[in-house]
Design a protein that fits this description.
The chain is an alpha/beta fold. 34% of the residues lie in helices and 26% in strands. The protein folds into two domains: 211 residues, Rossmann fold (3-Layer(aba) Sandwich); 59 residues, Alpha-Beta Plaits (2-Layer Sandwich). The protein is globular.
């Protein structure tokens, strides 16, 4: 596959449903070979944005270009170059995993042998003859991704692929997603799991209420937050007065379990604690992408 610069270009797209502005002026680009994340709380407009890029929905205004051409009206020339794993996938009842993949392969004129290879790619070889209703949630997601990849697309869309999976299944699926990207494919992922985006994505767009609030590499967004580092040791490791004297600009709290420093200059605090042999139970927590997310979108729960 030859790399294509500017694989996706989204320019000021809008989409309304009645009084609801699902997408309200979204603009970004995705480069060839990039692992790009679209993050946001429920109802942020992530899935609608993805569906517009995929050519499943028409924007009310604005433009989208995928490989230099518009995906809407439904562009058949793009179908073989894109793979789509939807937020919820439905498979034919009573078919085995092998039969499901072979059915998807036949839609693209792909040989059955290629379909069988995909079982190994996604780690489902031992489940080839299992009917899909017998698969676990993680196995179903792997099968869904295999069906999206069976025609060897250059660009892959993954809409919350690890939603509702247990932690082990999520981490296991992350390894597969890395392999998909390492093979040279461009990957666009929507998720509301910040640790997932931080672990996988080269860049992320944080969305809320139909708009992109921030865009950039996760590490850059975290650094821009300038949030304090929290350093915790066992409660009572130092008298409160001594702890406060280490760095007067730091915030110090002792809740009876941990003595915690909140500081933008963690180095001197750690050195002072080491000099005083007060590192028992040490925990250092820097800002994360979740802190950026909450700072931008707020902390209230939205169903």
């Amino acid at each position: 596959m030859l790399p294509v610069a500017g694989t996706i270009e989204v320019n000021d797209i809008h989409k309304r449903y009645g009084d609801t502005r699902a997408v309200d002026g979204v603009t970004f680009e995705v480069q060839a070979g990039e692992f790009f994340g679209i993050l946001g709380p429920n109802g942020a407009g992530k899935t609608t944005t993805l569906e517009i890029i995929e050519g499943l929905r028409e924007p009310d205004s604005g433009t989208v270009s995928v490989f230099g051409t518009s995906p809407w009206p439904r562009n058949k020339g793009l179908l073989t170059r894109m793979g789509v794993q939807l937020q919820a996938s439905s498979f034919f009842e009573r078919l085995t995993a092998r039969e499901q993949i072979r059915m998807f392969a036949s839609l693209y004129g792909v040989a059955a042998g290629r379909a069988d290879e995909m079982l190994d790619t996604v780690g489902l070889t031992d489940k080839a003859d299992s009917r899909t209703e017998k698969l676990s949630g993680g196995q179903m997601q792997r099968l869904s991704i295999a069906c999206a990849l069976v025609h060897d697309p250059e660009l892959v869309f993954l809409d919350e692929p690890t939603a509702a999976l247990d932690p082990q299944a999520r981490r296991n699926l992350w390894d597969l997603l890395r392999k998909i990207n390492d093979a040279g494919r461009t990957v666009v992922l929507t998720t509301h799991y910040m640790d997932e985006a931080e672990a996988l994505c080269d860049r992320v767009a944080i969305m809320d209420r139909g708009q992109v609030l921030e865009l950039g590499p996760p590490a850059t967004l975290v650094r821009g937050l300038e949030a304090p580092t929290r350093i915790s040791v066992e409660s009572g490791a130092l008298p409160m007065a001594d702890a406060q004297a280490i760095q007067p600009s730091a915030t110090v709290e002792d809740d009876g379990v941990s003595l915690t420093f909140a500081t933008t200059e963690p180095g001197p605090v750690l050195a002072a604690l080491a000099d005083r042999d007060a590192l028992h139970g040490l925990s250092v927590k820097a800002a994360t992408l979740e802190d950026v997310f909450l700072n931008l979108t707020g902390r209230e729960y939205r169903a």
